[in-house]
Amino acid sequence: MMKSEKRSITSASAPYIAEGAGIRTVMWTVSACLVPALAWGLAVFGARAILVVATALAGAVLTELAANAIRGKVTVGDGSAFLTGLVIGMSLPPAAPVYVPLCASVFAVAVVKHASGGLGANWMNPAMAGRVFALLSFPAAMSAWIAPATIAEGAGPSFDALSGATPLSVVKTTVSSIGAGAASQEAAASALRSLGGPAALMAVHHYPVTAFDGQLSKWLGGLFGVNVRPGYFDLFFGNTAGSIGEISVFLLLVGAAVLLARKIISWEIPAALLGTFALLTWVFGGVPFATGLFQGDVLFHLFSGGIVFCAFFIATDYVSGPLTRPGKIVFGAGVGLIAFLIRAAGILPEGASVAIIVMNMFVPLIDRFLRPKRTVIAREKTT
Amino acid sequence: MFGRKSFRGGVHPPEHKHLTQNKPIVTLPTPLRVVIPLSQHTGSPCRAIVAVGDEVNEGQKIGESTGFVSAPVHASIAGTVVAVESRPHPVLAFPVPSVVIESKPDATAATAAWTKNIDWRTLTAESIKDKIKEAGIVGMGGAAFPTHVKLSPPPGKTIRALLVNGAECEPYLTTDHRLMLERSDEILEGVLILLKALDIKTAVIGIEKNKTDAADLLREKIRRKEAAGEIAGDESVRVATLKVKYPQGAEKQLIKALLGREVPSGGLPFEVGVVVQNVGTAFAVYEAVVKDKPLIERVVTVSGDAVAEPANVLVRIGTSFRDLLAFAGGVTGSDGAAAAGVEVPGAEAQGVEVSSAKTAGPAEGAAPAEKPRAGYKMIMGGPMMGLAQYTLDAPVIKGTSGFLVLKQGDTKPSVACVKCGACVDRCPAGLMPYQLGNLSERNDFAACAEFNVKDCMECGVCSFVCPSARPLVHLIKYAKLNLAKQKK
Fold first, then answer.
1. What are the extents of the domains in chain A?
2. What pTM does this model have?
3. ipTM > 0.90?
């Protein structure tokens, strides 16, 4: 006879103690860690961005409340709907019309999350599904970029704040227009080769650079005796056009450091994602500029667009990601690969959101085949 | 790498050992009444060999084992058998046949002295094992597996090493720690006796790093014994320090940490040439072999944030938790004791009820059922793997390493699994507990079996780390129970 089974049905099983953090804490901490990057985006993009984020939040939370009312279970306090709305708002262009964040949030919370059974049951990342839904529904509105106040001010009257394109879209359109406009393939190749890379291309197009960046670049150049091309510091600190929450890589890393330190996210997905993306960019990033392999501008690509935002705050979503350590590495690497392919060869300037949705589809397969190594333990046999 | 001193996964729960780790072992005055269950071990229950009205002596055998995997039970006090009937049991959820012994308050019948000093070196391995079996010794760490069975490897298996488990990784518990500090000579003698019984030469005592005082003391004693020639030249007894991590004291984790060997699925430590014994067991072996004293008492840590005077207590087997708790000052708080129904000695109050809503009332023969009261949780053992108690009438048994009364904090409500992977990351067995929990909830036990639910040792790490407060261990036990039923 064995004892354990019988007691399980008559009394609550051990353990009788538990570790502190609950789901609520996790969700609200992630939201709090997004605040610095969000605050920066709102500050430099102004009222229109505030409207976008507020609409996304309201859409998500109100949809959650409606779903709670229908399903007779109040879950709005767990913070997951708020976080979904926040991520959607931060991933949208600052001048997007209000119906964009509204549709994205309602779709994310109502269809992606609650229609599959609520928190824990959805297979797609709700925020990214909402964003992709908006991208396919309103492609023009999804490129309603404006330049941040910090660069629009110093750019002079020639720079139109409303049409400030993102660095990635400038690069993509310029490269393809050179290709289309050139007389021959060789002429196109030599024109591209003369540009050298994305940062140089930006300079040729007089993409504005702040005095802050100019000074830092000069100082750093002097320190190491090299020529540092201006623009990287603006990209890193967020003096660039882009989605509201993605532009300040620096502030995103500050929030990510807190999440890593508190063990709310683990290193595997961000490391595999950024590692794969950086490696591929380094190897193949020079190809569009006809400079050959191993010439890619890794820093430009890491600092521009939403890849850092995605790596630490979106790809690390618990529900729609894999559970095991090796699974997380495969998942992260897959997102990095697809995000790179879209940047390098896709029609869109970038596609981290699409990359995540695609890899979400692989999660059941990943969890099935990449299981932890079993250290084999069995209870004492009685015979 | 952590090298050989650790294992995969695990957690580090708050230890709470400071409550009792510096308190010397105190002896509970011999109780006037003991209830000795005939089943106190893993294996077949004993058959009573005394009847109501019989006078028994301290240490007299009162229950005979009925199989090889079984251990006899002995009277822990001298007195009269007043009942042989079913009584509440701290492990089994139903009343279990027990022998109730009462001593007369005026009886001058002195407690037995146990002054024998047998030279065990003159005994054969077989006679040592016989003495251990007759003394009713079982694993003192909590599993209560009969020791003589562990000392009898199946034919064809060669044993190379004895691991002595002094890890004591459960929070609150300090019985092994105190025993190592206060009975170090006896424990080492016990280890040497076990080596002789196994006919091997190597023993490793594994102690977690939070008990360096015990490790240092044992190392010193080993040096002295070596110098005195009591440890033979070809014998090796050494102390290894282990990382403080739960469940370091689990048998297979200990083997992995100390020897780097992994026990195959479903296998026993025999498979990798190892026998594991608890330090408390080594002490009991010493008393049985040298003093001819059966297992009639043990050290129990009485602790928890709701206990007035936490202590390490030497207790007669069969003493009720009520007497034990009263000895430790009862439950704290002005209205705490009253609310919990606990009074100082002689209390007639009914037991503290487990605050779990799932608790079934005690069945027939037990104390009258009261409605569960919120506020306190009574546990036999540690908080990670211990067993919730529904009545203070249950007795201390051979496997009782601790008795805890905890204030019930605000328990988090269980919500949906968000697949955070914390349980997968920390599971020392390398399982995917969230998945076993989900499958068990859907009554898909075949799938649970496919995902190796049997390899779960119910250490509680998954439930401990779960941010959604999912009752994973409970669901896993439920799956195992149903799989066992299907087999029948």
1. 23-143, 265-370
2. 0.84
3. no
